[in-house]
Automatic annotation (TrEMBL):
<dbReference type="InterPro" id="IPR001314">
    <property type="entry name" value="Peptidase_S1A"/>
</dbReference>
<protein>
    <submittedName>
        <fullName>Secreted trypsin-like serine protease</fullName>
    </submittedName>
</protein>
<comment type="similarity">
    <text>Belongs to the peptidase S1 family.</text>
</comment>
<feature type="signal peptide">
    <location>
        <begin position="1"/>
        <end position="25"/>
    </location>
</feature>
<dbReference type="GO" id="GO:0004252">
    <property type="term" value="F:serine-type endopeptidase activity"/>
</dbReference>
<dbReference type="InterPro" id="IPR001254">
    <property type="entry name" value="Trypsin_dom"/>
</dbReference>
<dbReference type="InterPro" id="IPR050430">
    <property type="entry name" value="Peptidase_S1"/>
</dbReference>
<dbReference type="InterPro" id="IPR018114">
    <property type="entry name" value="TRYPSIN_HIS"/>
</dbReference>
<feature type="domain" description="Peptidase S1">
    <location>
        <begin position="33"/>
        <end position="246"/>
    </location>
</feature>
<dbReference type="GO" id="GO:0006508">
    <property type="term" value="P:proteolysis"/>
</dbReference>
<keyword id="KW-0378">Hydrolase</keyword>
<dbReference type="Pfam" id="PF00089">
    <property type="entry name" value="Trypsin"/>
</dbReference>
<keyword id="KW-1015">Disulfide bond</keyword>
<keyword id="KW-0645">Protease</keyword>
<dbReference type="InterPro" id="IPR043504">
    <property type="entry name" value="Peptidase_S1_PA_chymotrypsin"/>
</dbReference>
<keyword id="KW-0732">Signal</keyword>
<dbReference type="InterPro" id="IPR009003">
    <property type="entry name" value="Peptidase_S1_PA"/>
</dbReference>
Amino acid sequence: MRTRSLLTGVLAAGAALAMAMPASAAEEPTPMVVGGHDATETYSFMVSLQSGGGHICGASLIKADWAVTAAHCVEGSEPADLSVRVGSLEHASGGEEAGIADIATHPSADLAVIKLDKAVEAAPISIAPESGATGTETRIIGWGQTVPAPGGEAPATLQELDTAVVDDADCSGITGESEICTSNPGGDSGACYGDSGGPQIKGTEGSWELIGATSRSGNSDSNCATGPSIYTDVSALSDWVEENTAA
């Protein structure tokens, strides 16, 4: 597994992560995520994983008191170090807040489940039975920075980008049976620093299903969105997720 995750660089861009983006004068959605735009709907299952009150990673609410994220997002952290904000379009306000009671990480994949210290009212997302074949249309959402180079600004408002599953051969260092290679539309759009752990979903408004968790770049470029991204295949690992969230 390659080590350059989409969490790397967040500390360097810490000030940007705490800042709101300036309002755009344009009527069209402001380009964000790197090529995305402001969320067009409220995703009740969207989670901002936070440390010290600041956003560090995304996550997906899969049960009233459980969320799934990337393992590298929680590496070296104790539950008391982390908290979440659930179901808001803003990572710094709104939604519901909770602490973390427990963390379990997958033994080999970039995947973790986090138990909240209380149940929340937000509606969770179901895990899809399978992630889908090459060409499956997907969407990624997150609060990652909005310019390709490390240390860029990050939005206050949740961003979304429509993507697709592409051939594993397009991603370097991918583990095909447990990871998804995801397109970078136009050759310059995709996940970036701060999007780690966040959801890759498929379906339509009101019937989204979770298939992936943002893991890392699919090439060796430290700039984001210059190639496809790699997502941990949550669908393929759903048995492990269920076993570790059954309590």
